[in-house]
Amino acid sequence: MPHTTIDDFPFERAPGCPFDPPPRLAALRAHAPLVRVRLWDGGTPWLVTRYADQRAVLSDPRFSADSSRPGLPAPTEGFAAQGRQEVRALSMQDGPEHARQRRMLIGHFTVRRINAMAPRLVRIIDGLLDRMEAAGPPADLVAAFALPLPSMVVGELLGVPEGDQPLFQRVSATMISRDSTARDFTAACGELGDYLSELIRRKDDDPGDDLLSSLVVTRMRTGQLTPELLVETAITLLVAGHETTTNQLALGTLVLLRHPEQLAVVRDSDDPARVASAVEELLRHLSITQTGLARVATEDVEIGGRLVRAGEGVIVPNASGNHDPAVFHDPDRLDIARPDARGHLAFGHGPHQCLGQALARLELQLAHPALLRRFPALRTTVADEDIAFKHDMIAYGVHELPVAW
């Protein structure tokens, strides 16, 4: 069936279906898998909706993620409005510079190295749950648990001293808050940059066993990284690892509460493989990067039988690929025993695949069971229609999640 109209993107989710991707994605995937869409700024990039085509785009070096290239789509106005482009993330670079920076960091994010952090992550998780329990119900699960956990974990990874963690958490929370203005974001970046500059000086005098110390010794002292670039790298790691994990943890908890039989498996299983499988399915099912991944063609490329010309933008909504029935049986159903869930695109694909995915997986695999075991009667205190879902944000989730136990 030919597609003759140009839809405005991003699409809206169906009323009463907060966990499902927008239905328009499924319609296009079935009948017009590569179409033009219209963005807030008038741009009309291509929208790629099928799993196979998405993998092809994300693995093809002829599609660039470089934020300095003309034609790279900006799916929403909000990202630019909050000034987040001031932090040029590793995921928005290409070529030799991207490869150089990725090589510099990848050794610190191997599965083996991340798994060695498990005892420290357990200590952080238990501490947050102790605090929740002591304060008593009700609580906002986002503010009490899902929001501070990733910043504390990144702080641990970077070697932020325990006494400095409150500042680190406060500033990082400001950087991802929907209430932060561009001025707030800039001020938070400045405060965090000043703090990290001082921390780097301290690491240079007395290195520890942490990522920041390692980069100081192996990269900064050898002249491969300036102190300024090291600060930018640390901020990028914080921003990249914070908002996504916060939203995935809170939204994943909510969807498990709506599927009590599957929640019981996560809570009661003593098999780490079953919990890991559940986390993969939650990542696939929720696909929280709701605006998708942006690319621009550097030369003419054929995708899905259509020609994308050099300079034309492309958007890859991974929620659509993760719900493609050609790949995942009955894709709109949550099934934590799904055998092929790990094939999802929640962490992207290709050379820009999420560097910190092993850390995110470990956080979720430890946090979900710990929360549910500590509070076996955990429940929301408001109806779903009264929960403030993040329809207005790049990463989908909930602004608050009122709970009791």
Notes on the structure:
- The chain has 405 residues and is of the alpha+beta class.
- The chain has 16 helices and eleven strands.
- It has helices at residues 23-31, 51-59, 77-81, 95-106, 111-115, 118-135, 141-146, 148-158, 165-176, 182-205, 211-220, 227-257, 260-268, 272-286, 318-321, 357-374; strands at residues 7-8, 34-38, 46-48, 63-64, 139-140, 293-297, 301-303, 306-308, 313-316, 379-380, 402-404.
- It is globular, with a radius of gyration of 21 Å.
Summarize this, please?
The chain has helices at 23-31, 51-59, 77-81, 95-106, 111-115, 118-135, 141-146, 148-158, 165-176, 182-205, 211-220, 227-257, 260-268, 272-286, 318-321, 357-374, and strands at 7-8, 34-38, 46-48, 63-64, 139-140, 293-297, 301-303, 306-308, 313-316, 379-380, 402-404. It is an alpha+beta fold and 405 residues long.
Supply the key terms.
single chain, 405 residues, alpha+beta, 6-stranded mixed β-sheet, 3-stranded antiparallel β-sheet, 16 helices, 49% helix, 8% strand, globular
